[in-house]
Amino acid sequence: MTSDALKKILEHVRQTAMLQSTMSMLEWDQNTGLPPSAAEYRADQLTLLAGMVHQRRVDPELGHWLDELIATVADQDPSSPPAVIARCMKREFDRCRKLPQRLVEELSYATSIGQQVWVESKLGDDYPRFMPQLTRIVELKRQEADCLASPGQSRYDVMLDSYEEGATTQEIRQIFLRLRESLVPMIQRASERSAKLGPSVLEGRFAIEPQERFSKWVAGQIGFDFQRGRLDQTEHPFCTTLGPHDHRILTRYSQESFSTGLYGVLHEAGHGMYEQGLDPQWYGTPVGSAASLGVHESQSRLWENLVGLAGPFWKWAYPHLLEVFPSEFRDVAPSRLVADLNRVQASLIRIEADEVTYNMHILIRFELEEQLMSQELQVAQLPEAWNDKYRNFLGIAPSDDRTGVLQDVHWSAGLIGYFPTYTLGNIYSAQLYSAADRQLGGLDRQLERGEFRPLLEWLRDKVHRHGQTYLPMELIKRATGEPVDSRYLVDHLSSKCSQDQLLM
Ligand SMILES: [Zn+2]
User: Fold this and answer.
1) Of the candidates 5, 159, 401, 434, which lies 20 to 30 Å from 208 by C-alpha distance?
2) What is the pLDDT of residue 2?
């Protein structure tokens, strides 16, 4: 039975979702080859739409309908769609109402220009060029946090909460401290072993076209639906949804490194398959939206790392790889390929980092962001602070800003508080994989045969179809039968770091 208020809300949401997906379309286009001179007009277009979306979200009529809906669902099951819509949308409505229209539009403009300038600054290794834009973005994000903060919440708490509902700075700090304790000795041991491997078989000359063909084929095999999506190239890989049946994934190929493009595709396909597994009839509503960024990342990490880096996966994929690169891999044993894919070595670029050192990159960004938001650190000091932390945490430091502070798109897009969700995603992914392995009775044998359906169906059933019905940590608990626990990630990584596993 649909109440009047719910009907009105659903119609309102449907139109807001159309505006938002139009913005996503413009952003997708911006990242796939917008002419440089078109940047300013594109920023104007996005600013106009962001303002319209914001107006709809704070529409007082919507507020009345939400209040009506809340009254009618009071005695309903809290996991019923109307109750979920009432709870999530009321939270979002109250949040948006605290933000002045001016601030929303200024942020949209600053981040749209910011991303363009970031691309040019990174290409030219020119941090000073990016500095005024980043200074402006950080200032606007501080204002945003101040508008949204509840009593007792720090600015960084506010930022975190907008990506992972309920997560706090204190909680994240604890999780990171524990992880760091386990990771430091693990990295030490595994790096020593990896160093003995000699030159990697993943480096050389790999034509782009066969990489693209192979990556696209693998994405289709694991379950990304190309009838409802496509794969393109960009500078910084991402995934975006342009409608209930339109999911775009983007990657970056490198001629020098075979794994860059493929693992970008596996990662983004994991995101894309999550979006494709949401219920299209609830598109645009909380019931048809991803639970959180951390849960989103758990899906990309699961396919990229837990599946894609494992020996059983390559037992299946290797003969197909040989068809695409017959001369490049002719003399390479599959076990050697897997060993090289799982090398552990401190490196400068987060998105190319191995699974074990990866979380150190996140820890560094988490500390810097927190200091930026609390004004302990100024934008002008960022490159130096960045390099210091790399020296402290990973024992290496970049020789330029292109491979240092300019490497990620996030800050130019105003995404502060986003990085920690990557590590949460890693933690969730290992816990989900372990539960799926137990419940499905041995995933290794299925992966060896290229049977990815059961795993995808399990994720659809336990995670995807629920949308935002449950809070992120509650969803993981229901899926796996126990509270969120980082020990599954630590166990997974330490078993990889043991010699046998490393060599397949
Ligand atoms: Zn991701």
Assistant:
1) 401
2) 66
